[in-house]
Design goal:
Strands 1-2-3-5-4 form a 5-stranded mixed β-barrel. With 164 residues, the chain is of the alpha+beta class. Strand 4 and strand 5 form a beta hairpin. The protein has one domain: Beta Barrel (OB fold (Dihydrolipoamide Acetyltransferase, E2P)). The longest helix has 24 residues. The protein is 34% helix and 27% strand.
Length: 164
């Protein structure tokens, strides 16, 4: 019985330390850094969001037990600030995990997104949930637009720096 208690304490301690280490890697980027590091910045409306059909749920469940499946948000571009060009719709890959600061998208919501292209070629939200700013009132949209445009005036062109 004594060994079971010791093993349980050891397991709990290891889990706490692992969680603290994972959170230590997460640092919310300030707005100037989001603007400079993002490949695409846009105000969008989420048309659809949910698990992607690109993955086999059984295969993913085996790799990520207890984790949600990767998801895809289809968004309509309402206003482009950087990189979206003439695109009117974008697909954003996201992981709605609750363990790390995952990002979530919901159908019908409006937000400003800071996006980068992942190694797999899919667009992803920069810096987890920090790269998505919800818009709840029209005044917020104008406020974000002003902040972003002011920062873009001071930020070097994306071809002058390495995109991470």
């Amino acid at each position: 019985m004594r060994y079971r208690s010791f093993a349980a304490i050891l397991l709990i301690t290891a889990a706490v330390l692992a969680t603290r280490a994972a959170w230590a890697d997460y640092r919310a980027l300030p707005l100037p850094r989001l603007v400079s590091d993002a490949e695409i910045i846009a105000r969008v409306k989420v048309v659809a969001a949910g698990p992607t059909s690109r993955v086999d749920p059984e295969e993913e469940a085996g790799k990520r037990p207890g984790f949600p499946l990767p998801c895809l948000a289809q968004v309509r571009v309402l206003e482009s600030f950087k990189g979206a060009g003439m695109e009117t719709e974008l697909s954003i890959s996201y992981d709605p995990s609750r363990i790390c600061p995952g990002v979530r998208y919901a159908t019908g919501e409006e937000c400003v997104v800071f996006l980068v292209r992942g190694k797999d070629g899919l667009l992803k939200t920069l810096n987890w949930d920090t790269g998505k700013k919800p818009i709840r009132k029209p005044a917020e949209a104008a406020e974000w637009a002003g902040k972003i445009r002011n920062l873009l005036k001071r930020t070097p062109a994306s071809d002058e720096r390495a995109v991470r």
